[in-house]
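Now for one specimen:
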Amino acid sequence: MELVRSRVSRAFVIALALVGSMLVGVAGAAPASAATARNGVCESGEICFYYNSNNAGSISDHAATDLGNYGTDPATCYVFRTSGRSGYNQCIKNNVASVWNRTGKTVRVHYNSYYGGTYDAVGAGAKRNLKSSVKNNNASHDVSPFRSSGSCKNSFNNPRTCAGAVTWAKNHIGSTGWGGYCDRFVANAYGWSNSGSSTAYVHWTQIPSTHKHGGDRTVPAGGLAFFSGGSTGAGHVMISIGGGYFVSNDINGYNTISRTTISQVESKWGEHYLGWAQPWFKVNH
């Protein structure tokens, strides 16, 4: 009987030990603490902006969410929060030189407020200086999936809708009569006799930043894709028909309308892709 009791006791002790270890495993494993945004420390899950190049100076740390307006009033703007370092308590707008992206997603740092103008796409984990186009010229940022990859908007009083313009452009593939008149062609697609701008590049510069998505290659059907360059500096513009395809003049034969892509215009003509814009025309403004 003593032997039985001994075995039972040992079994009981082992069982208690197993239960105890399980409880420790469940209750004792502390979850990873979430980052504390806006404390001047670059923590996991944050996008962090630095006042100086090479990730030096004061830090402005942000949760992985879009921020369309940094502000310019020292009393209310987003500021660098790491005390004792250069740039501390200064507004971050037009003052960010380098970045560390710890969000796990791509973050776009934009030249203009509300995700407009040219941008630097900072990949997950990247720790580097911003590109020259937005270094110390930053006004907003958005986190993947991007707001800029939106849909074509019918909010500019154009005679044709986005869908109507796409249908018109498709129906004119193979036609002639627009040699050198890319900006007129996209204006015609939307029902205007002309765009109101002297060239495609001038058209791009006249469109308000809130309607432009610099560098964004995901162009919705009806969106206008712009380029700079060309022998006269006039640039180029074409209309998206969706799925990465566009309708353009001249690219596959002068004076002829055909289907093309952004990469074909870049490689064949050597023009620089600027981005896409909503169907905004100077003729109507």
